């Protein structure tokens, strides 16, 4: 009985996969969980509340009021009672409502009131699953800290074959068990991340910038937050809007502003990851009026910016961890190794402009990690989220070594 004493609210929505929720409920109860089922009106078209109530041993909640005696089902109480809100199956419509706070049924109001972890097991046809609207909504849910249990690939109710089948009940039960058993590795830790490009102003309408999207830095921040850490991102201008609730974003524009904010946050943190593509030079003079096309030639003199990673490297204490990035076009390993020493980093993440799918903009990266003992770890081309996991694993290991927990 691996879920004894756990309170789970199981939300069902209007999908053909709702029949699997009966097996899922039985699995949770068998493991000792106390389960309150909430069904959307559409879910009742697919499986009866009687089945779910018989299996859970509790009346199913569905309407805000009971038609019989006017009892009010308090979504607030349910949200507070739950140790976990599990929505399985979750339709595209329900995920869209969750992402945008559209509370037109008891399940969504419970979701907005819940203080606990939320897990969502989507079920839908393959084209719905991969539609940009659904993909964007799932991204928003992830940014709220919700766990998406990815659907499997296989035959779908429509007869089509593809990704969209709700994960099997036994697997979901195992995910729930491991969620309750997992130990977050970075609770009570605080990290600083720099991310995105910097903009160095020439005049009120022009700047020198670069193509950094900020995706790698934000992915690392999300992973750290997922391990229970508090994260502060000092971020150059990026398009990323949604972040995990444990992340604070301090927006900046220039390298100078980025340095100033980093210096104020760094003393409080256990570690910092320098992911930003910081300009190495900035215009010597800013023109307060728009520069006119008066001559055949325009010369803008540039002066060097401060090296933020290098500055923090000088300030870092024995206990603090400092990670840098190197984006190289030639002599990659040698250059990265030199930067590691010069900036006093604990390890450096190298991505080469020569590798397809690595570096700026895209959703993938291919990295090599080099540490102070000159250990070189080469990784395959992966999504930036997976790369972030590899980086966070290495951070956890080095922090444990620093704390003397590991040789
Ligand atoms: O020397 P280079 O710019 O290649 O070093 C890259 C690393 O240094 C990255 O971690 C980047 O975020 C950091 N950096 C910095 N401040 C600068 C330039 C680079 O923090 N002015």
Brief synopsis:
The protein has 407 residues and is an alpha/beta fold.
Describe the structure.
- By secondary structure, the protein is α/β, with parallel strands linked by helices.
- It has two domains: 175 residues, Flavin prenyltransferase-like (Rossmann fold, 3-Layer(aba) Sandwich); 217 residues, Rossmann fold (3-Layer(aba) Sandwich).
- It is built from 13 helices and 21 strands.
- The strands form six sheets. It has an eight-stranded mixed beta sheet with strand order 12-11-8-13-16-17-19-20, sandwiched between helices.
- The chain is elongated.
Tell me the distance between the termini. Answer: 36 Å
Task: Please state the average pLDDT score.
Answer: 93
Low-pLDDT ranges: none
Name the beta content range. Answer: 15-25%
Find the CATH topology of the largest domain. Rossmann fold
The CATH architecture category of the largest domain equals 3-Layer(aba) Sandwich
Please identify the top-level CATH class of the largest domain. Answer: Alpha Beta
Strand order of the largest sheet: 12-11-8-13-16-17-19-20
Which molecules are bound besides the chains?
A: cytidine-5'-monophosphate
Number of domain modules: 2
The helix fraction, in percent, is 25-40%
Radius of gyration: 25 Å
Count of discrete alpha- or pi-helical segments spanning 4 or more residues: 13
Main sheet makeup: 8 strands, mixed
Shape from CA axes?
Answer: elongated
The total count of strands amounts to 21
Structural class: alpha/beta
